[in-house]
Amino acid sequence: MRILVLGSTGYLGAHVARRLGAVPGALVLGGGRSPAAEYVVDLASARPEQLAKTLVSAAPDTVINCAGATGGDAVTLAEVNVRGPAVLCAALREAAPAARLVHLGSAAEYGPGTPGTPVAESAATRPVGPYGATKLAGTALVTASGLDAVVLRVGNPVGPGAPSTGLPGRIAGLLRAAGPDPDAVLRLGDLSAHRDFVDVRDVARAVAYAVTAPGPLPGVLNIGGGRATPVRDLVRGLADRAGFRGRIEENAAGAAGSARSAEVSWQCSDITAAGRALGWRPVHTLDDALTALWEGGGVP
């Protein structure tokens, strides 16, 4: 089985590629913007006919799209998160119409949740801000493509190798910089929001299950931890592992905060459908993920 992983050098993509490498009979091919990639692909700028030629060369049985933008202006987000899936689907229809497409979406597509009520795939989508809106548009393009495709809507990934562009990696970096100094102060924004954190290794396992699952799959499947956890608990969990002796100031003046946290105060995914369709459930706890992150592990 030939599996092309797009975005293979990113946080999710690297974990996915490593996990798929353990699948019996799988040949994992790396794709991405890096000149070092086996197949150099930039979904933000590639033409469908150009990408189709790359797909003919790679001859994949499955394509995993882990490429995506989480930050930047609306134009950048749209180029990667909307144009990218559109070009990929067009190229697949031309060059590899029988290949399965596994596309990584985001729980941000749902927008604000109702406290105490996990969100199922059938729920209304009301994304807040351009990131969630562009990810939702990408999902719509994939599910309407006519391909053998599934979108895995991923919660908030955390675990080994978490980058500083996300909250867990950023907090870990701040704690490493603070060290054991009892006078150190971490000035953070609002930590009251609840999020569905999922270990990145469980995300990679879900992708592997989606690759090998027989028959057509539902268009969208939630991949999350299945519980809402206060962001404050994540910060304190990392601080405990760091032996942090200083002070954490929440809602500190001048601290960088997230507008989305204020607008989406509670989020939790119903992961029942993924259990039915893939036989998947998370096996790592948030404690596992935080320990792996703090111990400095990269891709396992």
TrEMBL record:
Q: Which InterPro entries match?
A: Epimerase_deHydtase, NAD(P)-bd_dom_sf
- Family of this protein: Belongs to the NAD(P)-dependent epimerase/dehydratase family.
User: Could you say which residues form the signal peptide?
Assistant: none
Top-rank lineage group of the source organism: Bacteria
Name this protein carries in UniProt:
NAD-dependent epimerase/dehydratase domain-containing protein
Ranges for domain NAD-dependent epimerase/dehydratase: 3-224
Gene3D superfamilies in the record: NAD(P)-binding Rossmann-like Domain
Species this protein is from: Streptomyces sulfonofaciens
